[in-house]
Design goal:
- The complex is a heterotrimer of chains A (301), B (258) and C (383).
- Chain B is an alpha/beta fold and 258 residues long.
- Chain B is built from 6 helices and 13 strands.
- Chain B has a single domain, classed as 3-Layer(aba) Sandwich (Rossmann fold).
- Chain B is 28% helix and 30% strand.
- In chain B, the strands form 2 sheets. Chain B has a 9-stranded mixed beta sheet with strand order 9-8-7-10-6-1-4-5-11, with helices on both faces.
- The longest helix of chain B has 17 residues.
- In chain C, 52% of the residues lie in helices and 14% in strands.
- Classes of the chains: A alpha/beta (301), B alpha/beta (258), C alpha+beta (383).
- Chains in contact: A-B, A-C, B-C.
- Chain A: It comes from Geomobilimonas luticola.
- Chain A: InterPro entries: DHS-like_NAD/FAD-binding_dom, ETF_a/b_N, ETF_a/FixB, ETF_asu_C, ETF_asu_C_CS, Rossmann-like_a/b/a_fold.
- Chain A: Belongs to the ETF alpha-subunit/FixB family.
């Protein structure tokens, strides 16, 4: 079995997520070749053929041109699967390639399943197994679903280029805006509970939130005590949230709080009390003192 | 200027889903149906453009499905679309994204639309394929995941949402198709008087057989709930070791740490 | 009667979404401040909620009663004070004009009531007269082509916000009963019309009630609804037949929300290592509430259908209002019980609803008045 992996590169850098493609191919037990629109100073640490197009000529975002580069590589490699990350780059490009090849696309694969690929559906509440009906297929894999593999070594680079008229012109990047707190949209929330002890300790929790690129949350008692503003409150009288990662620091897990956060994708609780009710909804319960553990964790990130 | 917005009707995502008789999709009984959230952004943006252009523009809303999708079309008409197209299909869930895109492209091909709006994906199937595939079928310029949209002098300036909140700015010449993402706008409520008035707007019905020419390229072989979460892991021990353990788990189980 | 099911479904979905996104998040704040923010009332206007029952030719939506009730059942999933804002325009504050008004009166008031530009209010109750027509004291004495009104009206919902009052007054003191009563449309700002202070109520904070005082208030004869003396009480009864069904729907909507709050709590809250919903004594309370809500819902919808067929619903609307208002109080009481101590705490919506719904057994005819109406109708039919 053979895969053509489509690497990712942005603002002059190879993106680490590229190694998740290798992780996926590893799980499939497939041979790999890679196509990257990047630069030869930023090569992935892996063996195999690398079709390398120069991003300074081909553009970091130029879907019509990148599509052509991929189609050319498909011609040479004749892979069973063309694999993208399900990212702003991958979901934009993959259907264009699949349509030109007239092959099946399976989007946002989270795992391999008997008879096909496992994908999420219905807002990630349910799963489907999807089976391509064509000999080749285009796959996009969910970010984070496949552990990255960095086999090391050097790819054998084949420089490629293409020239295509495009009616889409990329004009540049805009940096992310600093936003007001909107916990409902945060991907990561780190919440301070009564267990942080006093107002002066809140920055310890906020530092972890920052290190994870997330927002600070707070439980009811912490807000009532005036340690954190109400706009950060999670729970029945605050906001109901469902981030990808929720870390509850010194939150006992009163029912009002649980109602506001239990739908989070992954929940970590840090609590001295092994029997605290927060443990019931947590994927990981770290039994430790919040003020000792949280700075230690932040230091490792 | 002719504008098309494509919408899907999906179940209320707070519903409890269970597999239907074939085991390949959800049981459709007892579900409340809504306009796909991403499509609401598409409709709002299309209506804003329609308002910007005034009488020189015509905005059509299209949906594929059984009778119930008439409600989603009416909602879009009440939000400000001019006319509706209902592709009547009693089994839209059995079509793969390739076929759905083929149906839309077959309808749109001779209509001369300058701009087509879709949601970036559906909330139920979530393939994020249909919009881009329609653009490929029609040979339209295309950009996905829009959080910013402006139109002037025949050119679309779009802001695409990239990872980490960065935006990529692209310009597209018409004819073009864009797929819309949360954050693009705040969809208006269709007001009750406008819902009443929407009754008078035309909805053209087209049997799906007239537009469906493609065979599916992929099949859903199973629809099921995720494997049940086992009990949580409990970590105890020395703080430094615990932190290492947790970082390892987060790398393995979440997309947050890489 | 549902004229167009898919159109109604779109309306119901819109109201559902509005309730979830724009009303429920603000209900606690509105209660605490005893005020609904202007921007929310503006949004309710824009949505078209004030015009539910007003005919289309006067810029309303012209919903049938069954359609109106389907919308109200959704709207009342949020605090009843939001329904109260539109309640008088949809119900008692506008219906007198809709049912018995002259064309001129309809043209003057209904489009503005439908858009919510003005608020209508219904001034029947007096300090010494509730549903007893004979003891209605407010007088209207003819003086040329005007009437001079004197009296006090009590517990008038939305009076502080109202621009037009439907005031019931006795035009003929020689007729002690209903026949001596006429209904007047009195505009805010008419000399002699003034308001008392806002009452401090048990619940429904954010909705306002006060006295309306008439002190030599001169209004033209053309202000009588239908420009016909002596039929005011009949107008009031026709208004109330319809609006009592509406209030019964309000009760069903509120009860649905309250039960939902209690159910969620029962499923989440653990005692003795299991959710309290697993205990049969809790289950009994949940089941009784569910069954009673279903019964009331069926009564309300059936009554509405009968009304839409232009049949007399005097008995049915009183049955619905009696049962639904008593029912919602039982449901609220059980909900407090299910929440235990939390049900007595302000943080939980159930505590607020418990106080809010108590009013439903009192206004637009107490439960006892409904019993009298039902029984009188029964006896009249056999004698």
């Amino acid at each position: 079995m053979k895969t053509l992996l489509i690497g990712e590169y942005r603002e002059g850098k190879l993106l680490d997520s590229t190694y998740e493609l290798l992780g996926f191919a590893g799980q499939l037990g497939a041979e790999t070749a890679m196509l990257l629109v990047g630069s030869d100073s930023q090569l992935p640490a892996c063996g195999g053929t690398l079709y390398l197009a120069d991003a300074s000529q081909c553009g970091e975002y130029n879907p019509d041109l990148h599509k052509q580069l991929i189609l050319d590589a498909v011609q040479k490699e004749n892979p069973d699967y063309v694999v993208f990350l399900h990212s702003s780059y991958g979901w934009d490009l993959a259907p264009r390639v699949a349509a030109k090849l007239r092959v099946a696309q399976v989007s946002e694969v989270i795992g391999l399943a008997e008879g096909g690929f496992e994908v999420g559906c219905c807002n990630a509440k349910m799963r489907r197994t999807v089976k391509p009906a064509t000999p080749k297929a285009v796959i996009t894999i969910q970010a984070g679903a496949f552990a990255p593999q960095q086999p090391g070594g050097n790819p054998s680079v084949q420089k490629v280029t293409a020239s295509v008229m495009s009616n889409v012109t990329f004009t540049g990047y805009e940096p992310a805006e600093a936003k007001d707190v909107d916990l409902t949209r945060a991907e990561v929330i780190v919440t301070a509970g009564r267990g942080v002890g006093k107002k002066e300790n809140v920055p310890v929790i906020a530092a972890l939130a920052k290190a994870l690129g997330g927002e600070l949350g707070a439980s009811r008692p912490v807000v009532d005590a005036g340690w954190v503003e109400h706009s950060h409150q999670v729970g029945t009288t605050g906001q109901t949230v469902s981030p990808k990662l929720y870390i509850a620091c010194g939150v006992s897990g009163a029912i009002q709080h649980l109602a506001g956060m239990k739908k989070s994708d992954f929940i970590v609780a840090i609590n001295k009390d092994k029997d605290a009710p927060i443990g019931e909804v947590a994927d990981v319960l770290v039994v430790a003192d919040v003020l000792q553990f949280v700075p230690a964790l932040t230091a490792k990130l | 200027m002719k504008i098309l917005v494509c919408i899907k009707q999906v179940p209320d995502m707070e519903s409890r889903f269970k597999p239907g008789a074939g085991g390949t999709w959800y049981d459709e009984s007892d579900l409340a149906w809504r306009m796909n959230e991403y499509d609401e952004y598409a409709v709002e943006q299309a209506v804003q453009l329609r308002e910007q252009l005034g009488e020189s523009a015509e905005l059509t809303v299209l949906s594929i499905g059984p009778d119930r999708v008439g409600e989603a079309i009416k909602k879009a008409l009440a939000m400000g679309c001019d006319r509706g197209v209902h592709v009547q299909d009693d089994a839209p869930a059995t079509r793969d994204p390739w076929q759905i895109a083929g149906i839309i492209a077959a309808y749109a091909k001779d209509q001369g639309y300058d701009l087509i709006f879709t949601g970036m994906q559906s909330q139920d199937r979530g393939s994020a394929q249909v919009g881009v595939t329609v653009a490929e079928d029609l040979g339209y310029a295309c950009a996905t995941t829009l959080v910013g949209f402006a139109f002037a002098d025949g050119t679309v300036t779009a802001k695409r949402e990239l990872e980490g909140g960065i935006k990529g700015v692209v310009k597209l010449a018409t004819p073009a198709l864009v797929t819309c993402q949360l954050g693009l706008n705040v969809p208006r409520y269709p007001t009750l008087p406008n819902i009443m008035k929407a009754k008078k707007k035309e909805i053209q019905a087209i049997p799906v057989a007239e537009l469906l020419k493609e065979e599916p390229l992929a099949a859903t072989v199973s629809f099921h709930p995720p494997a049940r979460k086992g009990g949580g892991i409990v970590l105890e021990g020395e703080v430094g070791a615990l932190a290492d353990q947790l970082v390892g788990i987060l790398k393995e189980k979440t997309a947050i740490l890489r | 009667m549902i004229k167009d099911e898919s159109t109604l479904n779109v309306m119901v979905e819109t109201v559902q979404k509005f309730v979830k996104e724009r009303l429920i998040p603000f209900e606690e704040q509105c209660s605490e401040n005893d005020e609904i923010p202007h921007e929310i009332i503006d949004e309710m206007r824009e949505l078209g909620l004030f015009g539910l029952s007003i005919p289309e030719e006067y810029d309303g939506l012209g919903l049938t009663l069954e359609e109106e009730i389907n919308v109200v059942l959704e709207l009342c999933q949020a605090s009843p004070i939001f329904r109260s804002v539109i309640g008088t325009n949809v119900g008692i504050g506008a219906l007198g004009i809709v049912i018995d008004g002259t064309e001129e009166q309809k043209k003057k008031y209904l489009p503005k009531l439908a858009s919510g530009e003005i608020i209508g209010s219904f001034a029947l109750t007096e300090p010494d007269a509730g549903s007893d027509a004979a003891s209605l004291r407010t007088s209207a004495v003819k003086d040329g082509d005007h009437y001079v009104l004197n009296g006090t009206k009590r517990f008038i919902t939305n009076a502080p916000e109202a621009s037009v009052f439907t005031v019931f007054a006795r035009t003929n003191p020689d007729i002690k009963g209903a026949g001596g009563i006429s209904a007047f449309l009195v505009d805010k700002g008419t000399p002699g019309l003034s308001l008392g202070r806002n009452e401090k109520k048990m619940g429904q904070w954010g909705g306002h009630v006060c006295d309306v005082i008439l002190d030599n208030c001169r209004v033209p004869a053309s202000a009588i609804i239908g420009e016909k003396e002596g039929v005011g009480f009949k107008t009031a009864m026709k208004v109330l037949d319809k609006s009592r069904t509406h209030i019964a729907a309000v009760c069903v909507g509120a009860a649905t929300r309250i039960l939902d709050e209690a159910l969620r709590y029962a499923v989440d809250r653990k005692q003795f290592n299991k959710p309290i919903a697993d205990f049969q004594l809790i289950q009994a309370m949940l089941a009784d509430s569910k069954a009673e809500i279903y019964a009331a819902r069926c009564m309300v919808l059936e009554t509405a259908r009968k009304y839409d067929l232009k049949k007399n619903i005097s008995t049915e609307s009183s049955c619905s209002k009696l049962f639904a208002s008593e029912m919602v109080c039982r449901v609220a009481d059980r909900a407090v019980q299910i929440l235990g101590g939390s049900g007595y705490i302000r943080d939980y919506a159930v505590e607020r609803f418990y106080r809010d719904v108590r009013l439903f057994r009192l206004y637009e005819g107490t439960s006892q008045i409904q019993q009298l109406i039902i029984a009188r109708n029964m006896i009249k039919d056999v004698s």
